């Protein structure tokens, strides 16, 4: 890998020298993407309970040297991810002097690198125009920007999903089997950022098998292929081992939850692959609406019913065109299938497989699909749009080219007009700091408990700063009441005040405190803070 990176850097230098205009354009695109993502990132980044939880865990790793064997829990299914994301953001948190902005900047750098990869792969697969259009739209897409600005485990998945696809491409097309080792690393990171990354496995597995079939007659190639496959699988196993060790120590609860979620829990995932086919057109439109169209239905409709069918037609057209070169006496399904290995067809085939498996997999999911669930194929729709645009530019009439240009300009306008930086920042981290400072002041150095009443938040965003400042904040453990129960409980209510009733809340952090009464209350940064003491 290091030798490849060295060669790649030298190639890039020579390429910049030979292609100054294109180099300037991609530099501008990267600059635009970086500006949208890094602008006032400390004020725009999400910092709620999940982000606070991650910061607490990583800080304890750095300060107390507490080893981490398990990562964040999933929102449904009672499953846990692996800890790789925590280890990845630890250096960023340390370099930022334990400011949560550090990990967010790291995630943003992955987002900027993804823009570059989209350009590089679009250019290599389809041509210069495809790479530029795909990377530019990826750099300005509001949903992509939003998920590139905050430290959250699913937010790194687009980068590692794309580079995994690129790895199998290098293995399949160029016999660079060393990329299988890298693929083992990348896929482990994907699975430890979100379990929906499993939907990438069929695509990677398919092209792994195709690589084997392509090289099986060469003993030397198969030897290298096998060696690096074993190395990649071994590396993957090592990186997943902390989660396995944790599971073994806890009666395989995580494995049982995963099995229940994917194989037995029919209210969540359908076990019949054909059952979701009717949902695919709607799902494609939903993806286009979120990623490419910034919630503009008119633009989304054009992508769904023109760009996507157009790409399938292009794929079939170039496949049929390439099979015409096969002499009639040698035409067979096997020989036609071999044409999929040719570089002319391969890029279309790989993108069709990536998108097809993704949509079929998501169609089997019966619950609401959130935007971050698309992380394992975030870049794919942009590459598809770039590929169709490339073909139109090279092969269509002037009128069609002008129509495409007008559409793309309008799409740029829609994306820019809905850019996240147009709106006031949420300042969630600043709110957490302000509230934590008030609690620190009112606690007066004495032991206390903490609770948050909110619809979509919990204590860890505030608790992180209190722990960082060395305040004696304790989580109440019913089995260790004498050690963990304090004489005062601070309740942060993020709901409208008329809905705040801290003394009667059924939330565990409040209920475990016991009978209580309000001693004081304050308004801080738009939330109400209550100080509760035990009722006599």
From TrEMBL:
GO molecular function: pentosyltransferase activity
GO cellular component, one term: plasma membrane
Membrane topology: Multi-pass membrane protein
Key words, A-Z: Cell membrane, Glycosyltransferase, Membrane, Transferase, Transmembrane, Transmembrane helix
Chain ranges passing through the membrane: 21-39, 68-89, 101-119, 125-144, 180-213, 225-246, 302-323, 344-366, 372-392, 399-416
InterPro entries recorded: LipidA_mod_glycosyltrf_83, RgtA/B/C-like
Biological-process GO terms, alphabetical: lipopolysaccharide biosynthetic process
Residue ranges of every copy of the Glycosyltransferase RgtA/B/C/D-like domain listed in the record: 83-243
Principal localisation: membrane
Subcellular location: Cell membrane
Alphabetical list of Pfam families matching this protein: PMT_2
Protein's name in the database: Glycosyltransferase RgtA/B/C/D-like domain-containing protein
